[in-house]
Each structure stands twice: as C-alpha cells, then as structure tokens.
C-alpha cells in the first residue's frame, strides 16, 4: 500500500494504485489514489480521518436543520426525511451517508475510489443500513440519465478535484426543482494555509502531509461564481471553526478557513 504521506507517481497508466480510479474531467487521479490508500481507515476515529469525525456532528446538525426548515419537516420526528432522495458525492467511507440514511433519506453514496466504496459498503452492511453505494464519477452518473435529488451533498471534495467549476456544475445539475445543494471546502486564505495545512498537516499532524493543496482551495465568491448560471442560488457562506480551547468545532461567522455553502433551486 502506498505511503499516504508520499505523493504517488504522476502517471496514471504505470501505477496500479491509480488504475482503479475512474477517469473523468474532474478526477485528480493522484489525489483519489491518496484516499484509496487510506480506505481501511475511514471509520478509525483516531486515524487519518479524525478531523472529519470531529466535525461530523456540527455539519450533520447543520444539514439536518437546513433541510428541516427548507422542506418543513417535523424537527421531532425520528426519521424526518423519509421520501427525500439524497446523494453524497465524494462520500469516502460514508461518514455522512450513514447519518443521512438514519434520518430517513433514501441515500446514494458516490465516490471515484473503488476502495472507499468497498469500505463504505462493508460498514453500512455491519450497521444494517440500506445505502446505494456506487464507484463512479459524478459525470458518469449525470450522463446515465439518473433522476434528480432533493439534496445533493459534496462536502470536503471540491478542493480535491480537477476543474472544480465543471465538477460543481455537474453536481448542481443533479439538484431537483425545489432541492438543495451543500458544498463544504477550505478557503484560499493565508489563515487557511496556516491552520488547514501548516498546523493540521505538519504541527498537529491531524491529517497526512500532502492531504491538501492550498492552490485548490476556493474562495466563497468563486463557488458562487461557478453556480451563477446553474439555476441554483447560493445563500451566504457559513463558517465552521475549531476552538482550540474547547477542542470543538462549531458554526461561526468566520469563513476564513472551513466553510459551507447551501444553494437552492426554485420549484418549477
Ligand atoms: C476528504 S474526502 C471527503 C469524504 C466525505 N465527503 C466526508 O466529508 O466525510 C474526499 C473524497 O472525495 C473523493 N473524490 C475526489 N475526487 C472525486 C471526484 N472527482 N468524484 C468523486 N469523488 C471524488 C475521494 O476519493 C475522497 O473519498
Ligand atoms: Mg479535504
């Protein structure tokens, strides 16, 4: 297995680690291979994906509250989202797909890495969760004539793709009339470089070195620009910040490091 700290070779054809990654305009094969190499670690709360586990409760409750308000669902229901279709694009090991299924959504989890999908499937089966997992690119799914989704999630993925604009436009095309798109990523600021890369990868070593490329981080206005002619309208970005004193993540007004954007498609 490749050492995730070391960048795999560039060539797609000469590296077996990379062969399993489907090709497509948004695929950064090197990046997908880095996640594949860690596939077994997705559910290790103390492993390489510890930060995702740590901020999962914050983003899951944000999604829950936003969807509840938007679709006027009962906040006290055990499974408030029954009857709604959700797709988790770049689902990795299913850290979001699973809580979404538990809240009643009919869930499709899609990832470019066959190995990640293998981990996600095995974990969902252990928990008795019925989730449709697919090792595909979003472009392949969109081209297959798939019906739209009430909720489209692409969380912590866009900073890992090539051609983020075409990737996001394809994601937006999957949102049904009246539906929602959630995008989460890191901002291209000096602060995000200091905290998201220098601190997280080198000082605290929360994630393997090389996990992120600062040049691929996006400013909220760039995401808004990509969405401008897609028919989905973005709300203002919401920050997600880490408090080093309480060691907790929370929503905040500071979009300078991690942030999420919700965009809405009008009903026909
Ligand atoms: C940081 S992980 C995020 C996982 C998950 N969304 C979460 O937040 O828990 C990024 C994931 O995106 C996947 N990925 C990268 N580029 C992709 C693409 N173009 N299409 C689909 N998945 C992609 C990787 O394989 C990896 O599993
Ligand atoms: Mg990331």
TrEMBL record:
InterPro entries reported in the protein's UniProt record: SAM-dependent_MTases_sf, UbiG_MeTrfase
GO molecular function: 2-polyprenyl-6-hydroxyphenol methylase activity; 3-demethylubiquinol 3-O-methyltransferase activity
Pathway(s) per entry: Cofactor biosynthesis; ubiquinone biosynthesis
Keyword Cell wall biogenesis/degradation in annotation: no
UniProt-listed Pfam families: Methyltransf_23
HAMAP family linked: UbiG
EC number of the protein: 2.1.1.222, 2.1.1.64
Catalytic activity: a 3-(all-trans-polyprenyl)benzene-1,2-diol + S-adenosyl-L-methionine = a 2-methoxy-6-(all-trans-polyprenyl)phenol + S-adenosyl-L-homocysteine + H(+); a 3-demethylubiquinol + S-adenosyl-L-methionine = a ubiquinol + S-adenosyl-L-homocysteine + H(+)
Name recorded for this polypeptide: Ubiquinone biosynthesis O-methyltransferase
Organism: Asticcacaulis aquaticus
């Amino acid at each position: 297995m490749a050492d995730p700290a070391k960048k795999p070779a560039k060539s797609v054809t000469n590296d077996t680690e990379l062969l399993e990654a489907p090709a497509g305009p948004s695929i950064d094969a090197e990046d997908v291979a880095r996640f594949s190499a860690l596939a077994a670690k997705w559910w290790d709360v103390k492993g390489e994906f510890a930060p995702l586990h740590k901020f999962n409760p914050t983003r899951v409750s944000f999604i829950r509250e936003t969807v509840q308000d938007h679709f006027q669902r009962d906040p006290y229901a055990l499974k408030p989202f029954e009857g709604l279709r959700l797709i988790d694009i770049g689902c990795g090991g299913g850290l979001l797909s699973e809580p979404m299924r538990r809240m009643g959504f009919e869930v499709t989890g899609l990832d470019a890495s066959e190995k990640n999908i293998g981990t996600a499937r095995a974990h969902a089966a252990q928990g008795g969760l019925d989730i449709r997992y697919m090792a595909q690119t979003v472009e392949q799914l969109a081209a297959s004539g798939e019906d739209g989704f009430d909720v489209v999630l692409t969380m912590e993925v866009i900073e890992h793709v090539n051609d983020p604009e075409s990737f996001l436009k394809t994601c937006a095309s999957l949102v049904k009339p009246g539906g929602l798109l959630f995008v989460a990523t890191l901002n291209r600021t000096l602060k995000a470089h200091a905290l998201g890369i220098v601190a997280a990868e080198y000082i605290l070593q929360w994630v393997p070195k090389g996990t992120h490329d600062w040049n691929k981080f996006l400013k909220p206005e760039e995401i808004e620009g990509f969405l401008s002619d897609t028919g989905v309208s973005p709300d203002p970005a919401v920050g997600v910040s880490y408090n080093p004193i309480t060691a907790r993540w929370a929503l905040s007004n500071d979009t300078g490091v991690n942030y999420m954007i919700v965009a809405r498609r009008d009903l026909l």
